[in-house]
Amino acid sequence: MNKNLIIYNTLTRKKESFKPQNPPLVGLYVCGPTVYSDVHLGNCRTFISFDLIYRYLLHLGYQVRYVRNITDAGHLEGDRDEGDDKFAKKAKLEKLEPMEIVQKYTIGFHDIMRLFNTLPPSIEPTATGHISEQIEMIKQIMNHGFAYEINGSVYFDVEKYSKTSHYTILTNRQLDDLLVNTRELSGQDEKKGRLDFALWIKAKPEHIMRWPSPWSIGFPGWHIECSAMSHKYLGDHFDIHGGGMDLAATHHTNEIAQSEACNHKQPAKYWMHTNMLTVNGARMSKSAGNGFLPMELFNGNHPLLKRGYSPMTVRFFMLQAHYRSTLDFSNDALDASDKGYKRLMNAVALLNKLKSSNQSDFDIQSIQERCYAAMNDDFNSPILISELFEIVRIINSIYDGKVQATEEDLKIIRKLIQHFVFDVLGLKEEEHQADDMGKIVDWIVQLRTEAKANRDFVTSDKIRIGLQALGIQLKDNKEETTWSKIN
RNA sequence: GGUCGGGUGGCCGAGUGGCUAGGCAGAGGUCUGCAAAACCUUUUACAGCGGUUCGAAUCCGCUCCUGACCUCCA
């Protein structure tokens, strides 16, 4: 098995050969969602990208421990120490307990992930389930002199840390510029330095989500949870840490600082960042009002959508772009992906009907090599997909009897489809023929075949056109009639 | 203002010095009772200007446009 995997590492801004520390084990940590509202499509892109990465690592034979957290506490509105907890705020709005909010949106998140056919992570820890680990870590950081307590809250001392470590290693910014250009925020008076960030925040009396600590009854800062949980499940120094690009400058920068201040080690060897989903060139976000909820996309119920698209179409659409590129969302782009995806799956459905010959008119070995080369080059799924369409052409040509294939090559084709279409890209057939409706359609198609055999084309056309109006498309071949659903 | 990206044919989107990306759309053809599908062939391209080079979409410089981050955000 070819394992010359190359990964782009944000730490070094270079593509590097992937060398896990303890092969075949791989530790992978990805920053998960904050479950105070529905995930939107942009969030989904990140998790689908890391699903591809996870799946390919598994395919290469690595034993991956994939940790993806659920943030269910700690976020403040506007990062002000006085701000409301997002969960408490949402709870007030929906007249629910904060933990009801957490439960509701965690379930919603899992439902969406399942629809997108992403594999569940090995461990999905929650921030509220790891308060004591976070407190322990804050203690360590204080012991090492990189944090200080004021009025029951604890802050990380960025200026002190940056004297011995490279605070802005992920973004390459100059600390002086940051000091000058960081916006003045209210509620920062008690911090020593304006770049300092909260590790522990003393709760105001009305604050519902609160825990005891050596400093005050309060709640943890946002960044510390990921550091504490990644450390607990993956150790001081694990292989890959990932997340959306928008997290690099703040969240990940602070994670690195906390982990180094605590453990004297850079927490991860490779940092991977996925790019944003855009709409009309601008980043999709809730505040901009251009965000789609996955369900809106599936059922087409949104002013910017002319129709709905299935989860697999959306997944395929996302995989047709590289994870480090922005991807622009549009109806036309989705339409194109929808047709491309159907074309791919139609060819896959023909696999078991192919007849072998004594020779092959194509070189499947070199296509196989190119598939691996594409994925080994920093998970280049668009190139992989272009190779798969090469295979689609071959499958269709064999089916049409225009190209010959040996039984051995057919086996390789079936294996490649299984490995890359299903295992790595994580696509699945949106089944239709197994259910009752499918049996009924099969029977109607059979009636039409009989009508055709009797040259009763009036009846056969009536059936074909009628089914089409109901969203079922027939395809006549020399030997049989197949059908598929259309949108 | 700072940091880091981008500008590729009608649309989406790969590609980083010479060799077809791919999908969708368009055109012609084959097949077919018709339709669809499929297959074959095929048109349209690298923001602008200058430079390096035998050769640049790809490297360098300048200009224009644009995005992300710097504030919670995948």
Layout of SSEs?
Layout: E1 6-9, E2 14-17, E3 25-30, H1 41-59, E4 63-68, H2 86-94, H3 98-115, H4 131-143, E5 147-150, E6 153-156, H5 158-164, H6 175-181, E7 197-202, E8 218-220, H7 222-234, E9 238-244, H8 248-263, E10 268-274, E11 277-279, E12 282-283, H9 294-299, H10 311-319, E13 327-329, H11 331-349, H12 364-376, H13 381-399, H14 407-424, H15 436-453, H16 457-469, E14 472-476, E15 481-485
Parallel strand pairs: 3-4, 3-9, 9-10, 11-13
Antiparallel strand pairs: 1-2, 5-6, 6-7, 7-8, 11-12, 14-15
The structure holds one RNA strand of 74 nucleotides.
Strand content: 5-15%
Looking at this structure, what is the CATH superfamily of the largest domain? HUPs
Helix content: 40-55%
Remind me, CATH topology of the largest domain? Rossmann fold
CATH architecture descriptor name of the largest domain:
3-Layer(aba) Sandwich
Q: Residue ranges: pLDDT <50 for 5 or more in a row?
A: 77-82
With strands numbered from the N-terminus, the spatial order across the biggest sheet is: 4-3-9-10
State the domain count. 3
Q: Which secondary-structure class do the elements indicate?
A: alpha/beta
**Cα Rg:** 27 Å
Give the mean pLDDT. 87
Distance between the termini: 40 Å
Oligomer: single chain
Beta strand count: 15
Report the principal-axis shape: elongated
Largest sheet: 4 strands, parallel
Count the DSSP helices.
16
CATH first level of the largest domain: Alpha Beta
